[in-house]
Every structure is written in C-alpha cells, then in structure tokens.
Amino acid sequence: MSHSKRRQEAAWKGRKQAQHPPHGKVKALAEFASEYDAENK
Fold first, then answer.
1. Which candidate among 23, 30, 35, 38 keeps its CA 20 to 30 Å from the CA of 10?
2. pLDDT tens per residue across span 17-37
C-alpha cells in the first residue's frame, strides 16, 4: 500500500468517526419536552 492510500484511508476514518459525536444518544422528543416543561415552569 502506498503512503497516499494510507493517508486517504486515515482521512476517511477521521471523517467517519467525526459523524458520531461523543456526547451520547439523542433524546426522544417526549423526554426533551418533559425536561423543558420542568425547567420553564
């Protein structure tokens, strides 16, 4: 494998991993709404 091929694959892996943010699962709308109601009463 050439160096440019390795660099291409490393860049692709970096972009692929960047699509998944490390902050956790996205909340359900109902869960988000209940939290919003609790904070804004």
1. 23
2. 777 666 666 678 888 888 888
HSE, CB side, 13 Å, CA atoms: give it for residue 4.
0
Closest Cα partner for 1 from 15, 17, 9, 13?
Answer: 9
pLDDT tier at 8 (50, 70, 90 boundaries)? very high
User: For residue 27, which of 19, 36, 39, 18 has the smallest C-alpha distance?
Assistant: 36
Please report where in the chains the tokens 């919003």 appear, as a residue. 36
Q: Rounded to 10 degrees, what is the CA torsion of 14, 20, 24, 26?
A: 160
